[in-house]
Amino acid sequence: MKKQWLLTAAMLAAFTWVAACGNGTGGGGTVSEGSSGGTQAKQGKAGSELLVYTALEDDQIKEYLQTWDEQHPDIKINIIRDSTGIITARLLAEKDNPQADVVWGTAATSLLVLDQNDMLEPYSPTGIERIQTTFKDDREPAHWVGIDAWETAFAVNKTEMEKKGLAIPRSYEDLLKPEYKGLITMPNPASSGTGFLTVSGLIQLMGADKAWAYMDKLNENIAMYVHSGSKPAKMAGTGEYPIGISFGYRVISEQDKGTPVEAVFPAEGSGWDVEANALIKKPNINPAAKEFLDWAITDDAMKEYKKNYPITAVKDESGELPAGYAKNPVDQLIKYDLQAAAKDRDEILKEWTRRYDGKSEPKS
Questions:
Q1: Phi, psi of 28 (to 5 degrees)
Q2: Residue 225 belongs to what H/E stretch?
Q3: CATH number at residue 232
C-alpha cells in the first residue's frame, strides 16, 4: 500500500504547477518558482529566501502576503501552489529530499499524513495560545497550527435551473433526484481537499456502508469529477453545469461577481477541514521559516483570512454573520474527526478511485 501510494504521489507531482502571486523587488517581496524541483532556500535571516508550498486559492495569496512583505522586505517568498491532493503528493514524493521550508494553508488532514511519515518539525509559533483547540495540534511543541476552516457547499445556477424547470437542491439527498442526471460536477478527492473533506465527511456522517451506497447513486448524476475544489462553483457560475459541489468561500465569491449562483449549505450538515501550517523537517531549518509561521497567525494575517472564511482559528467574538450565511457557520459543520480522516485517507482514496475515477476530467 505504502509503495503504491508513493508511486502515485510521484506521478501526481509531475502535474504540479505554480501560480504567480506577486513580483519580487530588491531583496524581498513574493515571487513564483517553477514546479520542476523548486529552489533550496538560502540559510540565514537577512536577505534570505523561503520556499512555501500552499493550497490556498490563487486570488487569496497575494492579498494575504501584503503585510508579510511590508514587515519582512529582506526575505523573498517563493510560492508553489496547487490543489491539496497534488501538494500532498508532491511533499510525500520529496520525503527523502525535502524542498519546501513551510507548508501554508493546506488541509490539516494532509499535514497529519505528513506527520505520520515523520516529515514535520515541531514548532509552536509565537501567539499559539490564541488559537482555538480544534485548530491546532495538542502536543507541545505543536506539529501543525490552523488558520481557518472551510466547508462543503453547493453552487447552484438559479437561471439555468429555472430554464429547466428544476428546483434548487437543498440537501445531499436532493442531489440523487433523477432530474439532476448529468448536471452536477464535484471535485476529485485525490486531487482536491474540498473533494476529500466532502467524501470523508459523508463517511463520518452516514457510516461507511451507507456513504458508499449514497455515492454510488450520486455518481449516476455526476457529469464529471474535476481536479479543483473551486472549479465546480466556477462552472455553475457560467452555467456549463448548473450544480457544483464546492466550498462556501468560492460559492459566495461567485455570487459577489454577479453570477446567478446561490450558495446552498446541505441540510444534513457540511464536511469540513482546517487550513493549516507546518514546518517541514530538513537537515537545516531556515530561521525565516519560523518567522513566517509566527506571522501566519498574527492579527494582521487573521484579519485577511477573515475576509474569505467565516471560521478562523482565533475565535470571532463579534457575533456578526458573514455575508452569504443564514446561520452561524460553525453550526453547519458535522461532527468530524480529523485524525480519523487522515488515518483512513489512503483507503478512502483507493476505494473512491476504484469506483468513480472513470468520470474524472483528464489532468492538464
A1: -125, -145
A2: strand 222-226
A3: 3.40.190.10
Instruction: Give the integer Cα–Cα distance in Å for 47 and 350.
Output: 44
Q: How many domains does the chain have?
A: 2
β-partners of residue 136 are: 145
Q: Which domain holds residue 299?
A: 2-149+273-320
Burial label, 79 (beta-carbon count in 10 A; 0-12, 13-18, 19+)? buried
pTM over 0.90: no
- Among candidate residues 210, 194, 220, the one with its CA nearest the CA of residue 355: 220
On whether both 131 and 225 belong to a single domain, the answer is no
Cell numbers standing for residue 246: 464546492
Please answer whether residues 165 and 180 qualify as being in contact, where contact means their C-beta atoms are separated by less than 8 angstroms. Answer: no
The verdict on 13 and 80 lying in the same domain is yes
Quick one: which of 86, 75, 73, 89 has its CA closest to 19?
86
Does residue 98 contact residue 48 with C-beta atoms inside 8 Å?
no
Indicate if 65 and 101 belong to the same structural domain.
yes
Note whether residue 135 is domain-resident: yes
pLDDT, tens digit only, all 364 positions of the chain: 433 443 343 333 333 333 333 333 233 454 444 333 333 333 334 458 999 999 999 989 999 999 999 999 999 999 999 999 999 999 999 999 999 999 999 999 999 999 999 999 999 999 999 999 999 999 999 999 999 999 999 999 999 999 999 999 999 999 999 999 999 999 999 999 999 999 999 999 999 999 999 999 999 999 999 999 999 999 999 999 999 999 999 999 999 999 999 999 999 999 999 999 999 999 999 999 999 999 999 999 999 999 889 999 998 877 777 778 878 899 999 999 999 999 999 999 999 999 999 999 998 7
CA dihedral 90, 93, 94, 95 (to 10 degrees): 120
Q: What are phi and psi of 183, to 5 degrees?
A: -105, -5
Q: Are residues 218 and 234 in the same domain?
A: yes
Question: 325 lies in a domain?
Answer: no
Q: Are residues 226 and 355 in the same domain?
A: yes
